[in-house]
Amino acid sequence: MVLVDDGLATGLTAHVALRHVRRQAPGRLTLAVPVGAPGSRDRLSSDADDVLCLHQPPGLRSVGEWYDDFDQVTDGKVLALLRGRREPRPSSAPSLQ
């Protein structure tokens, strides 16, 4: 199983997520992140079988500084993506079906 996070500052969220997934007994557990603080990446190596981190800049202050757009994703957008649509349809919009 591969767990993906947007990045590691302290690594606390990834730590909790890895512990939760580990209880489900996956055959192998890999954490993949695009950017992370070197110390956080090292601490998580005991929670996952593999930790893949593309960039480990020294002095990382925040994950958001490594993204052009780091806006929050709404629950509606996540649900729409999980259902296979690109954008959630507002409940007041008329149906085109």
Q: Could you walk me through the main structural features you see in this protein, from its secondary elements to its overall organization?
A:
The chain has 3 helices and 3 strands, in the order βαβαβα. The protein has 97 residues and is α/β, with parallel strands linked by helices. It has a domain of 60 residues: Rossmann fold (3-Layer(aba) Sandwich), CATH 3.40.50.2020.
CATH topology of the domain at 2-61: Rossmann fold
Helicity level, as a percent range?
A: 25-40%
Low-confidence stretches: 93-97
Number of strands: 3
Approximate strand percentage: 15-25%
Question: Structural class of the helices, strands and pairings?
Answer: alpha/beta
Strand order of the largest sheet: 1-2-3
The tally of helices reads 3
Give the SSE order as H and E letters.
Answer: EHEHEH
The CATH class of the domain at 2-61:
Alpha Beta
Radius of gyration: 17 Å
Give the biggest sheet: 3 strands, parallel
Tell me, briefly, the overall form.
flat
CATH architecture grouping of the domain at 2-61: 3-Layer(aba) Sandwich
User: What is the average of the pLDDT values?
Assistant: 87
Distance between the termini: 38 Å
In a nutshell, what does this entry contain?
With 97 residues, the protein is an alpha/beta fold.
Main traits of this protein?
single chain, 97 residues, alpha/beta, Rossmann fold, three-stranded parallel sheet, 3 helices, 27% helix, 15% strand
